[in-house]
Amino acid sequence: MNDGDRDAQDLIKLTYDKLSADAASDTVLCPSCGAVSMFIGTTRNNFEGKKVVQLEYEAYIPMAESQLKKIFCDIRERWSTVRHICVHHRLGVVPVTEASVIVAISSPHRVQSLEAVAYCIDALKASVPIWKKEVYETEDSTWKENKECLWAGGTLK
Amino acid sequence: MNTEVLVLYFAKSAELAGLKSETISVPEELTSQQLWQELENRHPRLSAVREQVVLAVRQEYVVLGNQRVSLRAGDEVAVIPPLSGG
């Protein structure tokens, strides 16, 4: 459509490095887009009265990438004007207040990318094979379970 | 006929099994429940998560049950505890 635009990009990065919101939003910029919508997930310092000192993430990396690509396909079907989609997810130790996930999506007008970002993070939590362990001040830890995951809680819905 | 597959363990299941991966010999045709049983036989502590896991065979999720699974040499099988990405 626009000569200045790249082909639609699906960008995935799973990294042990600190994430950058600027870097993520830069990857989805395009001249014909008036909107970049983003979600940043950060490490919260408490859970049920316990003080959280860090999260530790691990991933089934090749399948996490293929599941994200499926989500991106679904996004493009439902929100047809979405231009570029970017998900950065950190692995390993993520200290409190640092970002563990960034979703950035561009579109000509804001409604589509705002909705697509919300869908993307919900779908990621339901279907992408990544796990986080919450480590508390007391040095014990828990493997967390997303309520979006169909097999959490012991009953497959 | 048996075949050799690579089993990957993640999160809680890796802690219970005490390892992250291993190659095992299993029947080429079996149900997903039988495939899980092969893993539990080798690592009895996995029984603690039996009600909360699914498997991924060639990177597709498979619920534990009567679903038939066809395995080929070198296939990847992963134990998938409840997800907590994002």
Automatic annotation (TrEMBL), chain A:
InterPro entries the record matches: MoaE_sf, MOCS2B_euk, Mopterin_biosynth_MoaE
Subunit structure of this chain's protein: Heterotetramer; composed of 2 small (MOCS2A) and 2 large (MOCS2B) subunits.
GO molecular function, one term: molybdopterin synthase activity
Localization (cell): Cytoplasm, Cytosol
Family per similarity comment: Belongs to the MoaE family. MOCS2B subfamily.
Pfam families: MoaE
Protein name: Molybdopterin synthase catalytic subunit
HAMAP family associated with the record: MOC2B
Pathway: Cofactor biosynthesis; molybdopterin biosynthesis
E.C. no: 2.8.1.12
Keywords: Cytoplasm, Molybdenum cofactor biosynthesis, Transferase
One GO term (biological process): Mo-molybdopterin cofactor biosynthetic process
Major subcellular location class: cytoplasm
Function summary: Catalytic subunit of the molybdopterin synthase complex, a complex that catalyzes the conversion of precursor Z into molybdopterin. Acts by mediating the incorporation of 2 sulfur atoms from thiocarboxylated MOCS2A into precursor Z to generate a dithiolene group.
Reactions mediated catalytically: 2 [molybdopterin-synthase sulfur-carrier protein]-C-terminal-Gly-aminoethanethioate + cyclic pyranopterin phosphate + H2O = molybdopterin + 2 [molybdopterin-synthase sulfur-carrier protein]-C-terminal Gly-Gly + 2 H(+)
CDD domains: MoaE
Binding site for substrate: H109, R110, K125, K132, K133, E134
Note: This protein is produced by a bicistronic gene which also produces the large subunit (MOCS2A).
PANTHER family cross-referenced by the UniProt entry: MOLYBDOPTERIN SYNTHASE RELATED
Cellular component, GO annotation: molybdopterin synthase complex
Keyword Cytoplasm assigned: yes
The organism of origin for this protein: Aldrovandia affinis
TrEMBL record, chain B:
GO CC annotations, alphabetized: molybdopterin adenylyltransferase complex; molybdopterin synthase complex
One Pfam family cited in the UniProt record for this chain: ThiS
Keyword annotations from UniProtKB, A to Z: Cytoplasm, Molybdenum cofactor biosynthesis, Nucleotide-binding, Phosphoprotein
Alphabetical list of InterPro entries matching this protein: Beta-grasp_dom_sf, MOCS2A, MOCS2A_euk, Mopterin_synth/thiamin_S_b, ThiS/MoaD-like
PTM entry text: C-terminal thiocarboxylation occurs in 2 steps, it is first acyl-adenylated (-COAMP) via the hesA/moeB/thiF part of MOCS3, then thiocarboxylated (-COSH) via the rhodanese domain of MOCS3.
Gene3D superfamilies according to UniProt: 3.10.20.30
The keyword Phosphoprotein is assigned to this record: yes
Principal location listed in the UniProt entry: cytoplasm
Residues with PTM 1-thioglycine: G86
GO MF assignments: molybdopterin synthase activity; nucleotide binding
GO biological process annotation, one example: Mo-molybdopterin cofactor biosynthetic process
Record SUPFAM superfamilies: MoaD/ThiS
Keyword Nucleotide-binding: yes
Pathway: Cofactor biosynthesis; molybdopterin biosynthesis
NCBIfam families per the UniProt record, alphabetical: moaD
Additional information: This protein is produced by a bicistronic gene which also produces the large subunit (MOCS2B).
Function: Acts as a sulfur carrier required for molybdopterin biosynthesis. Component of the molybdopterin synthase complex that catalyzes the conversion of precursor Z into molybdopterin by mediating the incorporation of 2 sulfur atoms into precursor Z to generate a dithiolene group. In the complex, serves as sulfur donor by being thiocarboxylated (-COSH) at its C-terminus by MOCS3. After interaction with MOCS2B, the sulfur is then transferred to precursor Z to form molybdopterin.
HAMAP family, per the entry: MOCS2A (MF_03051)
Subunit comment: Heterotetramer; composed of 2 small (MOCS2A) and 2 large (MOCS2B) subunits.
Name of this chain's protein: Molybdopterin synthase sulfur carrier subunit
Species this chain originates from: Aldrovandia affinis
Primary gene name: MOCS2
